[in-house]
Amino acid sequence: MKQMKLATSIFVSAILLSSSAALAQAPVKNELIPAGASHNWTGFYAGLNVGAVNNTMNITDVQATSFNSTLQQVSNPLLTGGFQAGYRRQLDLAHVSGVYGLEFDANFANATFNKEYGSPFALYQLRSSNQLKTVCLLELIGGIAADKTLLFLAAGLSWVNITGTTTNQDELAFFNSINVAKKQVGTALGAGIEYAFNEKISARIKVDVVTPNTYTAHDNVGDAYQVADNVVLGTIGINYKFA
To answer: How many domains does the chain contain in total?
Structure first.
């Protein structure tokens, strides 16, 4: 809930800032805007992207029955690729103007984590693995366009697909395994910059911080573990505007 309130606050701030800038730069009512004075960002668009993604998973033994701590599992940044599509509307064609819209992003990756905790001589010997496979975002966009350059913020909902297990290798195990395979919804906050080469083609850089909802997983004997993920996604993309 806190993440959603923050996302909403940032988006509203971006819209207000965009509107203020547009009003400050608006031409006189009867003044004609010279042809080609400013790039027009209004229209449907779609494109491809590549980049890097990593996931931090925290597994906390809330009952302190197994390992009495939080296991933090941070995957190395790995290559990701995907696509984006959306619609933007520019408030006017002044040199500096507000832009808002809605965008859907889908990225596919293989960000994996593998590690062993403890030892055969300790109280436990754990083997953990997880894999981030898919990140989908549905975000509201708000920003300021200065001719061919667009600075924007993004806020909205996320959906991620993460698989994995934590298995106890000890013969006298408190538990056998914890299943952390989950398709989670959550929130997303992002920011980026985009440059238009012409009326149709533009390139951009975008970074998103994705916070899936925290959930509770249970092992085979019924003990509870809190699982919290945090995903950072950075991409470079190309967009084509259809109208």
So the answer is: 1
